[in-house]
Amino acid sequence: MRLRGRKGILESIQSQPELIVLDAAPHKGRWHEFFGNKQPIYIELGMGKGRFISDMSVRNPHINFIGIDMYDELIRRASEKAHAAWGAQGVAEPPNLALLRANIESIEDIFAPGEIERIHLNFSDPWPKSKHARRRLTHPRFLAKYSEILNEQGEIHFKTDSQSLFEFSLNSFSEMELQMRNISLHLHKDGLRDDLVLTEYESKFVERGNNIYRLEAVIGSEALSRYRTAKKAAQANGQESDTIVATSEPSIAPTITSEG
After folding, report:
1. Count of C-beta atoms within a 10 Å radius of residue 59
2. Does 55 show up as a binding residue in the annotation?
3. 159: closest CA among 129, 207, 97, 201?
4. How far is Cα 244 from Cα 237, in angstroms, rounded to an integer?
5. Do the Cβ atoms of 44 and 122 come closer than 8 Å?
6. pTM beyond 0.85
7. Cβ(83)–Cβ(114) under 8 Å?
8. In 10 A of CB 216, how many CB atoms?
9. Is 125 annotated as a binding residue?
10. How far apart are CA 29 and CA 8, in angstroms?
11. Is 202 annotated as a binding residue?
12. DSSP class of residue 195?
């Protein structure tokens, strides 16, 4: 991937240490110290230009968010999105958001076991050639790493416009014996889901009429227990399987204050 950006990109991102992290090593196992609180931490792997992670942080000030990408220019663009999103709320610096420059290949060196509560995979590179399958972010080798860093409430939320990647991912999640729920083969078939935060790519794909595929994987022990309890209760009440657990992605924007 080649990106053209403005001059002074590195200087720009180096000047924002309160938002941008260029070296993850010192923070492994200490990300709550970076944020200065014990709120749950959600991460987006491959955040692109940062619209999703910025909007999620504004809508959910009770959660800490980390957007990860490996390109300086995308980090810079995401910082602009973040400041614009929070600036609209009258907040100068995003209080619950970090933008991290890192290679996801080494995610086990970025986060300690159980440090993360949710992973968002949004429109990851499908790597369509079979010989590149191990590079797909839903390959079992990555899922094993995710399972290590997720805590007892841990979940993975995955969206893509690639049918082939979604099929591959279903098999990967199944191979790892992960509990899947809220599987959708056409997320916006009944109209744009305004209860969910969209990415830049997603908005464009929906306008073109592309199908958006989505699923959630329940991984943490407490999250699994809650899911199974809800499933039994739903079955006892004669509910359909797709009503057992409502989509748990935060959606409704609370009132934002300068205190976050």
Report:
1. 17
2. no
3. 201
4. 10
5. yes
6. yes
7. no
8. 22
9. yes
10. 32
11. yes
12. T
What distance in Å separates the CA atoms of residue 257 and residue 169, rounded to the nearest whole number?
Answer: 39
- Go through the chain and tell me how many residues it has: 260
The reply to whether 125 belongs to the active site is yes
If we measure between CA atoms, which residue out of 51, 23, 57, 25 comes closest to residue 39? 57
Q: Which of 23, 72, 125, 242 is catalytic?
A: 125
SS3 102: coil
Distance CA 259, CA 61 (A): 10
Helical residues (DSSP H) of 68-131, grouped into ranges: 72-87
Any binding-site annotation on 69?
yes
Beta bridge partners of 44: 67, 120
Q: Which residues pair with 69 in a beta bridge?
A: 101
Token pair 């931490």 in the structure block, residue: 41
pLDDT (tens place) for every residue of the chain, 260 residues total: 445 556 789 999 999 999 999 999 999 999 999 999 999 999 999 999 999 999 999 999 999 999 999 999 999 999 999 999 999 999 999 999 999 999 999 999 999 999 999 999 999 999 999 999 999 999 999 999 999 999 999 999 999 999 999 999 999 999 999 999 999 999 999 888 878 899 988 988 888 888 999 999 999 999 999 999 999 998 998 876 554 444 444 433 333 322 22
- Distances 247 to 19, 43, 187, 216 between C-alpha atoms, Å: 29, 18, 12, 8
One-letter amino acid at 150 equals L
Question: Rounded distance, CA 71 to CA 97, Å?
Answer: 18
Q: Report the alpha-carbon distance of residue 73 to residue 5 in Å, rounded.
A: 6
